[in-house]
Amino acid sequence: MGLRELKKQRTRDLLLRSALELFTERGYEETTVDDIAEAADVSQRTFFRYFASKEDAAFFVSRLAESHFVEAVRARPPGEAPLDALRLALVESWSTIGEAVERLIPMELHLRFYRVIESTPALLAAHLRRATELEEEIARLIADREGLDVEEDPRPRLVVAVFGAVMRVTERIWSARDDAGLAALRDLTASYLDQVAPALTGDWRDPGGRPLAERGGSTPQRISET
Questions:
Q1: What is the mean pLDDT of residues 157-186?
Q2: If pLDDT is split at 50, 70 and 90, which confidence band does 182 have?
Q3: SS3 for 205?
Q4: d(CA 126, CA 53)
Q5: DSSP bridge pairs for 211
Q6: Residue 77: pLDDT above 80?
């Protein structure tokens, strides 16, 4: 990388970090582009050379993480069941995603910003919209892996929708835990993904016919370890 490109990358990273720090400290709606530019000691014009908007800066790191996951799905060996391919792609790409994030901003800041998303209606709406777009991309990838026409066969979209729902539930529960770090998010995600099959196809009642909640039980145990 030449000196000019290195300087541009450093400016982008400084703007990114400044934006996320302000979003987590002041709030997304309360932070302006001018605030971000001032914190990074650059002009507003410089900000717009790197990001189209506040939202673009807010989700820059998330887009990077998502691209790593998509490539991990693409690299899964043929013959794996679609849901297994998604789960294993996530598990095996977790460390590389973390490394990619850390090259831009501290992981702690990235995780704090996830909580800002959950508590900010504009960000949450954008996050859900982007999640829908990502699910469509992955559904088409799964369809290609299986030799299916995604417009004719509903299964790729259904599988990816289930996977996406698990991720959404995990994010919501994790974000409500004040002391939860990256390891907690990883373990919670793995646990919930392990429960997909029994939740969809298993019998939720004991032999006596009582629902799990009535007998004071807990959620199903993880069915596999990776």
A1: 83
A2: confident
A3: strand
A4: 13
A5: 205
A6: yes
